[in-house]
Specification:
The chain is built from eleven helices and 24 strands. The chain is α+β, with helices and mostly antiparallel strands and 494 residues long. It has five domains: 65 residues, no CATH class; 81 residues, Nucleic acid-binding proteins (OB fold (Dihydrolipoamide Acetyltransferase, E2P)), CATH 2.40.50; 90 residues, Ribosomal Protein S5, domain 2, CATH 3.30.230; 121 residues, no CATH class; 72 residues, 3-Layer(aba) Sandwich (Hypothetical Protein Ychn, Chain: A), CATH 3.40.1260.20. A hairpin with an 8-residue loop joins strand 7 and strand 8.
Length: 494
């Protein structure tokens, strides 16, 4: 599988597109003002301990105090705070593990959201290209995405490479998915990098006052080399000379195999124009995605799940109707797998393929979807067709969806996807005028509404408006305001 990575960099935003077989498969975006805090390590200060919630608030230098739950503390941290002769409980309460004013090394698990502060953990982990280092643990684990028959062999290799730790502390590791085919030399290089990173964090924790930032996760351009680039990646093109130099310096120390793949894009057009990436992003923000055959899929993202509906559209086929349905579903399966990656849709996904009457066709569509989902770096679980003909799958949530990053709720319809018709708003106004006339006695009523509503009141609904004016015995004036949304209006008493 051929792969190419394009990077469009600017001071305010970094955009990465992963191209496979000439088609955009994945888009990553990082904005300098919205860069996440997950993975950052801080020396924090405990500002408040809440025994009733078994949690504490920690000042790490952010706008709001961060939240630390007892489950995210190191289990034996309480030992030095216990009185002589007192037995430690199985799960020490938080008031025996931390105290107000204490300096504590913590890592961000979840970014601040709304009025909530960041979620912290005292159990630090440092991510590398192939491994995740757990300096306070001795556990060695292997990614569940690696085939079961290879996990134990990888685990034994890593145990042999781990060596002896200082003071008997070996440190734990988790082998990431891309370590499946790694050589001992590559694993050893990642271990050395992670230990050096942890040594720097520990040194900072001894010298820096609380609150202080000790370690920040890699930028997106660096994570491209660590997480996105694969052996089959042929080119990594970036349109910034300064960022190219930074990537080359990073690759020299940690990912030398990627050095030859890095190059500066110097074309007259934007780097994303090479594969119409901006056009693909625009499509990924729409509900409807057209298929080459003439069919289309409709994708709706809700809080609970994502629904995908497949339609034949203008595709009439060349043979029989069953064959037309099968061909449309096969093409839709490829498109759905690609759109899940491109839009970064996570959680439960329900797909309503066009009904197929043969098990052979259903199995072929399921196999086609599975084949394309297998290229996804994010873990997916695919079920079979239900009795109603629906297909259910789940995709792990790893980051915000593309739509959430690039768009916001419509201020007019507030996410409903529809607004009241002008006639509906007219009738709302007439009812409210009658209510106001019963409660107040102004000289005149003035209605300020959207142009389309005023036009209808003056034209098709003029008889009803005139009848209401005569009934309440008050004149009703109309004023158009194109800046108002179609549903909004004001009734002014004069």
């Amino acid at each position: 599988m051929s792969q190419e990575i394009l990077i469009n960099w600017s001071p305010q935003e970094t955009r990465v597109a992963v191209i496979e077989h000439g088609a955009v498969q994945d888009v990553l975006i990082e904005r300098s003002l919205e860069r996440g805090l997950v993975g950052n390590v801080y020396m924090g200060k405990v500002t408040r301990v809440l025994p009733g919630m078994q949690s504490a608030f920690v000042d790490v230098g952010l706008e709001r105090a961060a939240f630390l739950h007892v489950a995210d503390l190191i289990p034996n941290l309480a030992a030095k705070h216990l009185k002589d002769g007192e037995a430690a409980p199985a799960v020490p309460p938080i008031e025996r593990q931390v105290f107000e004013g204490q300096s504590i090394l913590v890592q961000v698990l979840k970014d601040p959201l709304g009025t909530k502060g960041a979620r912290l953990s005292a159990q630090i982990s440092v991510a590398g290209r192939l491994l995740v280092y757990l300096p306070q643990d001795d556990h060695v684990g292997v990614s569940q995405k690696i085939p079961a028959e290879q996990r134990e062999a990888l685990r034994k290799r890593l145990l042999a490479l781990r060596g002896e730790g200082e003071g008997g502390q070996l440190g734990g590791y988790i082998l990431r998915t891309n370590a499946e085919d790694a050589s001992d030399e590559e694993l050893a290089r990642d271990i050395a990098y992670l230990k050096a990173m942890w040594a720097r964090i520990k040194a900072g924790s001894s010298t820096q006052p609380a609150p202080s930032l000790l370690h920040q996760d890699l930028s997106l351009v660096q994570r491209v080399l660590r997480d996105v680039a694969e052996p089959q990646t042929q080119h990594i093109r970036i349109d910034s000379k300064e960022q190219l130099a930074a990537m080359q310096a990073f690759a020299t120390h940690f990912m030398p195999d990627t050095l030859d793949k890095l190059s500066l894009y110097q074309g007259e057009r934007m780097v994303f124009d090479m594969y119409n990436v901006d056009g693909e992003i625009a499509t990924a923000l729409q509900r409807r995605v057209d298929l080459r055959s003439g069919g289309y899929v409709v994708i709706d993202q809700t809080e609970a799940l994502t629904t995908i509906d497949v339609n034949t559209g203008g595709y009439v086929g060349a043979k029989n109707f069953e064959e037309t349905i099968f061909k449309t579903n096969l093409e839709a399966a490829q498109t759905i797998a690609r759109q899940l990656r491109l839009r970064n849709l996570g959680g439960i996904v329900i797909v309503d393929f066009i009904d197929m009457h043969t098990d052979k066709h259903r199995d072929a569509v399921l196999a086609e979807l599975q084949k394309h989902l297998s290229r996804d770096r994010t873990k997916t679980s695919l079920g079979g067709f239900s009795a109603l003909g629906l297909l259910e799958l789940t995709r792990k949530r790893t980051r915000e969806s593309l739509a959430h990053i690039l768009s916001t709720e419509c201020p007019v319809c507030h996410g409903r996807g529809a607004v009241k018709t002008a006639r509906t708003v007219c009738y709302d106004i007439l009812r409210e005028l009658l209510t106001e006339a019963r409660n107040f006695n102004p000289a005149m009523f003035r209605v300020v509404a959207h142009t389309s509503v005023v036009d209808m009141l003056q034209d098709e609904e003029s008889a009803h408006l005139g009848g209401l004016s005569a009934f309440i015995g008050k004149p009703i004036a109309l004023q158009a305001d194109a800046s108002l949304s179609p549903e909004l209006y004001n009734i002014v008493l004069s």
